[in-house]
Amino acid sequence: MKLAITSKGPLIGSAFCKDFEQCQYIIIYDTKTKEYASRISPSFYTQNPEDLKKFLKAVFIKNIITGRKINDSFF
């Protein structure tokens, strides 16, 4: 299973970011391989949560760890 985690930095040990659309980074963690990758969040500059939702759907992420409720039945 792959998880998306909202983060303030690009490393797995970076501080957690509780704001879904305002987080600077997204960390994708694979629970099977224990590997992760990070990238700048698509919604960081636009402040539009739809940009981030579209990205996560495009890469087939269905599990998100964030501090906000996401009103989308896909997740």
List the helices and strands and how they pair.
Blueprint: E1 2-7, E2 25-30, E3 36-40, H1 49-58, E4 63-65
Parallel strand pairs: 1-4
Antiparallel strand pairs: 1-2, 2-3
Notable traits:
75 residues; alpha+beta; four-stranded mixed beta sheet; 1 helix; globular
Can you describe this structure?
- The two termini are 13 Å apart.
- A hairpin with a 5-residue loop joins strand 2 (25-30) and strand 3.
- Strands 3-2-1-4 form a four-stranded mixed beta sheet, with no helix packed on it.
- The protein contains one helix and four strands.
- By secondary structure, it is α+β, with helices and mostly antiparallel strands.
Strand content: 25-35%
* Chain-averaged pLDDT: 90
Strand arrangement, major sheet: 3-2-1-4
- How many helical elements? 1
Low-confidence stretches: none
Task: Write the element-wise H/E pattern from the N-terminal end onward.
Answer: EEEHE
| Quaternary assembly | single chain
Shape call: globular
Helix-residue proportion: 10-25%
Taking the alpha carbons of the first and last residues, their distance comes to 13 Å
